[in-house]
Design goal:
By secondary structure, this protein is an alpha/beta fold. Helix 3 packs across helix 4 and helix 11 runs parallel beside helix 12. This is ATPase.
């Protein structure tokens, strides 16, 4: 009798066991070189399956030495191309072909292989993968009721994190370090247990790293060369809570059941975010909502009525697409870290699914700021309307997030009204932060006026305003610029004597534009007038008084301006059209013979239109008639 085993049954170790049971005694076991190549590749990549298969080949060789069976190696090693297409069945096809050529019985523990072989007319012996009841893993012995995680590594004394939430201690839990052989034995026991137990599965399998979910334990196994030694990290939840155990429980329950929400559950590592997420998931599910999870790895402790999904085809986007077909009421996304995670979270939320995302953050507002730049600003309150901050296992802060059209706090001009995201303390209803666009930048402003808590410290609005004024003036001036705020809507800018005419511009036009953009009245003065510089104001005088009144307006040569793009304006019956190349949607200055005329935003079509009859158009038209060079300079 001749038998040909495939890779699956060799890895499973069932060939030798079947022989020892007397089924194939005296047979010739023809082992395809393709099987050896697969096992060798897996072992080289650090996969336990490769080593398990090689151990089985050694057992078969021992049986051959004892005269129980004959063992031979047949066929040729697969090519690199065939190995590259192993997942598509190329190696399996080579093995089946050998069994057919040898007229041998084909042995496999892969049900798909068995059915394909039968369809091709082969005699097939299907050996079911062995499933046995797995008892306690050795790594479990390192846990007690206060242990959250155990950390084992070759040549290192075992360590553990123990204690209550928020009071974890990282401490030694043994006297002697573990040697490599012991660590290897522990690692193999974990992987075998996950394979053999219905309560376990391998969550992630990459060269040098495997993550196993075994009952309540999530166990990560790292091997060289990915790590510098065998390392096992086993984690389990130490607390099972109900939503009623938390502060604001009644309000949060009403809020979650009122309608599908977008919630970020934030906090530092080990603060109890996942424990709270589990409590929320169970509560929602118990109140007749369909709940799913998106996790990698899957380690939330929830009931069987909540299906836990991981990456589909290695991508959470595909998982999201599948969930949108399932249409859950709520999805728990654990954890939201990378830009792609935030985008998937936002897409599902905007599709109408209630979302709870677990986010690492050291302050409550940090969780919301993670969305800035990843989600369009105006969409943030539609994506996230509630932020829950967990600290030491307790709900430390809850924020309500909504949009209002208003003048941001600290600014007073009516024409500065804009959409503002208000972040309000849930319990008191007092706004604590505002998020809005200020001069094309997204800013987050604390509303207590004293973010750092120090006496006399600047408010967030003050700091932002000062930064923006400095940025605007530095784009014009060449020398040192000093900005001093005199109130919410007034500032004094000190510049060098050489820069003062450039900053003011012709007829005060340039500083007027800066004021209009920022909504702040600006006095321009020389450094000699700065009382903080020690100069005492010996010369100069105020060049620009607040309230849009400008003195000393002509800049003469417009000194200090960088060279720009010379353009040829076109005069039509209604407009003067200034063509601009390469600055679509950007703010630019238009100058005539080096003198500032006005600031404008270039259209998407790459031009600026000035209505004839306006003061600006008259100045521009006069410059064109005088054949002055018209220049466009980025602002």
């Amino acid at each position: 009798m001749n038998v040909v085993p495939d890779t699956s049954v060799v890895i499973d170790g069932r060939v030798s066991k079947t022989i020892e049971d007397g089924q194939f005694e005296g047979a010739t076991v023809s082992i395809p070189e393709a099987v050896v190549a697969e096992l060798e590749a897996q072992a080289n990549d650090g996969y336990d399956s490769g080593w398990d298969g090689l151990s089985e080949l050694k057992r078969l060789a021992d049986l051959a030495d004892d005269g129980v069976v004959n063992v031979e190696y047949v066929g040729e090693r697969p090519s690199a191309m065939e190995r590259g297409h192993a997942s598509e069945g190329e190696i399996d096809a080579l093995i089946r072909d050998l069994a057919e050529d040898l007229e041998a019985t084909f042995i496999t523990s892969d049900i798909v292989q068995a059915e394909v072989a039968r369809a091709k007319g082969l005699e097939v012996e299907y050996v079911s993968p062995e499933v046995r009841e797995v008892g306690t893993l050795t790594v479990e012995d390192y846990f007690d009721e206060e242990t959250m995680s155990v950390h084992l590594k070759t040549d290192t004394v075992p360590m553990a994190k123990r204690g209550a939430l928020g009071e974890m201690r990282y401490e030694e839990i043994a006297d002697e370090p573990l040697d490599e052989a012991t660590m290897d034995e522990y690692a193999r026991e974990v992987v075998d247990g996950a394979k053999e137990s219905s309560d376990g599965f391998i969550e992630l399998k990459e060269p040098g790293m495997q993550i196993v979910q075994f009952r309540d334990f999530r166990i990560a196994i790292a091997r060289p060369p990915f790590s510098d030694g065998i390392e096992i990290t086993a984690v389990r939840p130490i607390a099972q809570t109900d939503i009623e155990d938390y502060e604001h429980a009644d309000e949060l329950k009403d809020r979650l059941l009122e309608r599908q929400r977008g919630v970020l559950i934030s906090g530092a590592p080990g603060a109890g975010k996942s424990t709270f997420a589990q409590a929320v998931a169970r509560y929602i599910s118990d109140n007749d909502y369909s709940v799913k999870t998106m996790e990698k790895p899957r380690d939330l402790q929830v009931g069987p009525e909540i299906t836990q999904y991981t990456e589909l085809g290695g991508q959470m986007e595909k998982t999201a697409d599948a969930l949108l077909m399932v249409r859950p009421d709520y999805t728990i996304y654990d954890e939201v870290r990378k830009t792609n995670d935030f985008e998937v979270f936002a897409d599902m939320r905007l599709a109408g699914v209630g979302m709870l995302g677990v986010v690492h953050a050291t302050r409550p507002i940090d969780a919301l700021q993670r969305l800035i730049g990843r989600v369009e600003l105006g969409m943030i309150p539609q994506v996230v309307d509630t932020v829950v901050y967990i600290e030491a296992g307790e709900v430390a802060k809850v924020y309500d997030v909504r949009t209002e059209v208003k003048v941001p706090a600290g600014l007073t001009e009516e024409d500065l009204a804009r959409p503002v995201i208000q972040v309000t303390e849930f319990e008191t209803g007092v706004p604590e932060y505002e998020i809005y666009t200020f001069n094309r930048q997204v800013v987050t402003v604390p509303l207590d006026g004293d973010e750092d808590g120090g006496p006399g410290s600047e408010s967030g609005v003050d700091r932002i305003a000062k930064q923006e004024i400095e940025r605007e003036i530095r784009s014009i001036a060449h020398g040192y610029v000093d900005v001093q705020l005199k109130g919410q809507d007034r500032a004094v800018v000190y510049v060098t004597d050489d820069d003062i005419s450039s900053v003011i511009g012709k007829g005060g036009g340039r500083i007027n534009d800066v004021e209009n953009r920022l909504g702040i009245d600006i006095d321009v003065r020389t450094h000699d007038e700065n009382p903080h510089s020690g100069a005492g104001g010996a010369s100069g005088g105020t060049q620009h008084a607040g309230g849009n009144g400008h003195a000393g307006g002509n800049s003469g040569s417009g000194g200090g301006q960088s060279a720009g793009q010379i353009v040829q304006p076109e005069i039509t019956s209604r407009h003067i059209v200034v063509p601009v190349d390469g600055h679509q949607s950007e703010t630019v200055e238009v100058q005539a013979n080096g003198e500032y005329l006005f600031t404008a935003t270039v259209s998407r079509g790459g031009e600026i239109q000035v209505s004839r009859g306006s003061a600006i158009a008259d100045e521009l038209e006069q410059a064109i008639d005088q054949k002055d060079p018209i220049t466009v300079v980025p602002s």
